[in-house]
Each structure stands twice: as C-alpha cells, then as structure tokens.
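Bug #77: duplicate submission created two jobs. Keeping one. Sequence:
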Amino acid sequence: MFGSPVAATTTPSTMTSLAADELEDIVLLGVPLWGWQVALAIVGVLALVFLARSIWNPTQRSLRAWALGNVVVNAGIAVTGATVRVTSSGLGCSEWPRCTPDSFVPIDTGHAAFNAAIEFGNRTLTFLVLAVGVITLIAVLRSTPRRRDLTRLATIIPLGVLGQAVVGGITVWTDLHPASVATHFLLSMVMVFIAVALYVRCEEPEGTPRVVVGPMLHAVSIALVVVGFLLLIAGTVTTGTGPHGGDAAAPRWDMDLPSVTRVHSVLAWLTLLGSAAAVLLAYRGGAGRPARLSGVALLVVVLLQGVLGYTQYALELPESLVVLHVLGSALTWVAIARLYFATTRLTPNEERVSTEAAAETDHDGERNSAEPAPGR
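Kept job's structure:
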C-alpha cells in the first residue's frame, strides 16, 4: 500500500535492501518499539489500579466516571483496530495468543517492524480495556447497597472483553476473514451499548424501567437502535468487500462494492431521518432535557458522519478518513444508545406501587369512576 510509489523508482536489488531494512526492529533509545508498548501497557494498568483505590468506597460520581471510561476504551479499541486494518498490519503478529510461533512479542515476525508494532500495540490495549472493566466491576460490588442490575451490567463488560480476545484469535487464525473481522467490531459495539447503559443507570435508583417521554419518541428510539445496529453490520460488510482488509493476502467478500455501499447509505439516511424525528418529537412533546440533548447530539453526529462517509467514498477510501469514519460510527452508536436510555428511567418498585395505588383511588379514598371495579 505504502510501498508502491517506491517500487516504481527502484531496482530489484534496492527493493530487497528496503525489505530487509523494514524487517529490522524499530528501536528507540536502545529499546525495541514493542518493548515501549509493553512498558506503556503495564504503566497504564498500574495507573488504573492506583486510581482504583479511590473506588474501594465508591460514590455515584466515581461509578459513573468508570462507566464512562468503559465507553471510551471499548469504542477506542475499535478505532485502533481500524488503524490496524488500513495499515495492513493485521498479520503483523501471525499467531495467537503468541505473536509468533516462538514468542509472545514481535521478534522475527516476517513482517515489517512497523506493521508488527501496530498489531502488537493493539493487542496490548486489550489489557487496558480489561483492567477498566474489572475495576468497574469491583467498584460496583463494593457499592452500598449493592445493586443487582448494575452488577449484571458490570459483569458482562469484562467477560465481553475476554470474548473479544478470543474473537481476535479467531480473526488471526482465519487470516483476517471479513466475517471474523466484522464480529470483532460488532462485539465492541455491543460492549459500548452495555457500558452506556451502566453509565446512565448509575445515577438512577434501582427499580423497573418506566417510559418518561411520549410513546412515539420511545418507539423512534427503539427503531434507531435496530436501524443503527443494521447500519453497523452493513458497514462491516462494506469493509469486508472494500480494499482495506488488514493484509494484502486477506480474503475478501466477492460482492459488488457500489451496491453494498448503497445499502449502507440507505440505512444511514434512515438513521438521519430517525434522528430528525427524535429531535422534533422531543421538543414538541415536552420531553425532558436528557432526551432533547441526546436527540440533538445524535442528529449532529449523524450529519457529520454522513458528510465524512460521502467524502471518503469520493476520494476512494483514503486510510485516514476510513479511521475517522470508524470513530464516527462509534460516536453515532453511543449517541443512539444515549437517546434510547434517555427515554426511560428506573423507578423504585415501592414508588411504583404507591403511584399505581394512588391512581386507582380519588382524593376521598373512593375508586375512580374511570377505572373498572375489581372483577369486572
């Protein structure tokens, strides 16, 4: 990808020399780049452990901060995965869980040191994502009173990260088959959705979800979740058909790229229309501030993502814009999830019972005439 301009102006002997140079380790201050990556990952995890001391007696604010951290790292690793793909670094480590048959770190990988460093760096980020998930789970378990709903959400996240590692291994074993690459990305988006749920529910009391907006806006938010996930799937199919497979030898889906792109575009337009409808319904229906702001944020993100998508297609998918488009996809999904959870709120069961009881009787203690009598 990056070597073609050089190849046009060099002799075969020069190309052989360049290839040999590329296979040498990238060294900074006498330490291979992968060594710096390992050290950085260790420092990051230790920093998280140090910060986790403040969560031994967690507050609502600290819980939300860690939940937001899960949103960031799970979306972020999807973006770094796109960087691996567009730089053709997907097989920079040809084995899993080892990098090579003989080493866990990139030594004599048979690939350019740059590609090996990119792939190995993405792998080490998994430990950071896992650390954030585990620390969040510990904080939730330490909360008083302990909430079962938050515990379930916080448990799923680190398990999902471990599942991501397994899917990553399958991706390597299948030489970056587009189906496994798509599953890898989509699982990250599922984790993002659960992390958003944890972030929102942390500030609400334990109870039963109750719709707090108009029924039409709630229905639109549900439809956006469905269409949004279909949009993500269509994006992975487009990626699996396009030129950026992660490696020159990676298999590709034999589909017509313009046709696949049109399906992706139609779903994007549906998302845009749904976003506009959500904003209109939120303001006309007197929805609360969270729903109004979430709707506006989603509309803005989808508009920017659409402009970026058409631009990258017109420019024949330049690498930098592809990575930005993946970032936009993650932000769009976060905004969709935030809108969905803004249309409901957890209501304590005791409050729900008292509210229903009050609705059944009038101010004199008599049953409201509009309500059916028992047994009728």
